[in-house]
Design a protein that fits this description.
The complex is a heterodimer of chains A (about 110) and B (about 110).
Chain A lengths: L2 E5 L2 E5 L4 E8 L3 E9 L5 E6 L6 E3 L2 E6 L4 E6 L8 E9 L6 E3 L3 E6 L1
Parallel strand pairs in A: 2-11
Antiparallel strand pairs in A: 1-3, 3-8, 4-5, 4-9, 6-7, 7-8, 9-10, 9-11
Chain B lengths: L3 E4 L2 E4 L5 E7 L5 E8 L3 E10 L2 E4 L6 E4 L5 E6 L8 E8 L8 E2 L3 E5 L1
Parallel strand pairs in B: 2-11
Antiparallel strand pairs in B: 1-3, 3-8, 4-5, 4-9, 5-6, 7-8, 9-10, 9-11
Classes of the chains: A mainly beta (about 110), B mainly beta (about 110).
């Protein structure tokens, strides 16, 4: 059965800390891995990764994919209270139906 | 450009009642999806559509029906609501070509008593 597992489930840090969120997957017909940030309502897109070893970066956030070991990490440096959210990882399959499998998410809380 | 909108935002039903959730997108996206989000469960796919007039089952389709009569709208129906369907429902859409990301609506919080 296809699955996506995120760790840790929750995390509390102080402003300025660096955090690493993990996403491992066992999915047939892998096409891409996506990261989303969910604050109070709708998830918003952060990154899409399709190739191993190529870092995607946006400000203080960065992400990388390892297709051999089947995992991805999301790094946030110099965390701010505005980074508090649930971070979702999703894997897209190439099955022709473009179905996405989501992990349960990591709840990050950044304290001032 | 409103993106993806959902109505209603909140709803309380009694067991056995029926209702329809409406999702609308103005981005001319081919694909649309309905998810439910429960604590500790992440997002689970209920039904999806790859184009007008087509629908398919996702991971948790039981108790739900959908219709995509117009490209911009995707309706989710509950024929006989059950307390197990208490959840937050998200609609999403994505384009056929280009980026693989989905665009999500703001969600509908449904409580079934």
């Amino acid at each position: 059965e296809d699955k996506v597992v995120q760790s840790p489930l929750s995390l509390v840090v102080h402003e300025g800390d660096t955090v690493t969120l993990n996403c491992s997957y066992e999915v047939t017909n892998f096409r891409s891995l996506l990261w989303y940030k969910q604050e109070k309502k709708a998830p918003t897109f952060l990154f899409m990764l399709t190739s191993s070893g190529i870092e995607k970066k946006s400000g203080r956030l960065s992400s990388i994919l390892d297709k051999k070991e089947l995992f991805s990490i999301l790094n946030i440096t110099a965390t701010q209270t505005g980074d508090s959210a649930i971070y979702l990882c999703a894997v897209e399959r190439t099955s022709g139906t473009y179905k996405y499998i989501f992990g349960t998410g990591t709840r990050l809380k950044v304290l001032a | 450009n409103a993106g993806v909108t959902q109505t209603p935002k909140f709803r309380v039903l009694k067991t056995g009642q029926s209702m329809t959730l409406l999702c609308a997108q103005d981005m001319n996206h081919e694909y649309m999806y309905w998810y439910r989000q429960d604590p500790g469960m992440g997002l689970r796919l209920i039904h999806y559509s790859v184009g007008e007039g087509t629908t398919a089952k996702g991971e948790v389709p039981d108790g739900y029906n959908v219709s995509r009569l117009k490209k911009q709208n995707f309706l989710l129906g509950l024929e006989s609501a059950a307390p197990s369907q208490t959840s937050v429902y998200f609609c999403a859409s994505r384009a056929l070509a280009g980026g693989h990301e989905q665009f999500f609506g703001p969600g509908t919080r449904l409580t079934v008593l």
